[in-house]
Design goal:
Layout: H1 7-56, H2 60-65, H3 71-80, E1 85-92, E2 97-106, E3 115-126, E4 129-132, E5 135-139, E6 142-143
Helix pairs in contact: 1-3
């Protein structure tokens, strides 16, 4: 009897190794794709947070009228996200309450559908009279 492996044993071991290598390569490709998609979603969410921080520092009257500079955000979204787009919207509920919505959308590739992330905030405007040093100042809108 001869020592060693038969041709059938070596061939089946090589085939099993090849199948494992293909499965591992596909797993790595999917993990990389998901990591890139998560990074893109995180970028979109971070940009939304930046928008709302900017809006918090903007005068309420400008917010209600939609009269603020959107250009920096539009250029950042277009630069940071593939086929990125940002949409601002307001919906007035009554004289004091406005819902402010910001939606960021992008495409991960030709075959994948567009993705989007949206945030909204309810802004309540108060026209309380501001009092300083015992004197009444003009009534100014404030976000609550």
């Amino acid at each position: 009897m001869k020592k060693g492996f038969t041709l059938i044993e070596v061939s089946s071991a090589a085939a099993l190794l090849a199948v494992c290598a293909v499965v591992l390569a596909q797993l790595i490709a999917v993990a990389t794709s998901e990591r890139v998609a998560e990074r893109t979603r995180r970028t979109a969410t971070d940009q939304l947070q930046n928008v709302f921080e900017y809006l918090a520092a903007t005068e309420p009257a400008k917010l209600a009228a939609g009269d603020f500079d959107k250009t920096p955000f539009e250029s950042q979204i277009e630069r940071m996200l593939p086929e990125g787009n940002i949409v601002f919207g307001t919906k007035t509920l009554d004289s004091r309450n406005v819902i402010f919505t910001v939606t960021v959308s992008w495409s991960d590739g030709e075959r994948r559908p567009r993705k989007e992330v949206a945030m909204f905030r309810l802004l309540t405007f108060s026209t309380d009279t501001v009092v300083s040093n015992g004197a009444k100042d003009k009534t100014t809108p404030m976000i609550r």
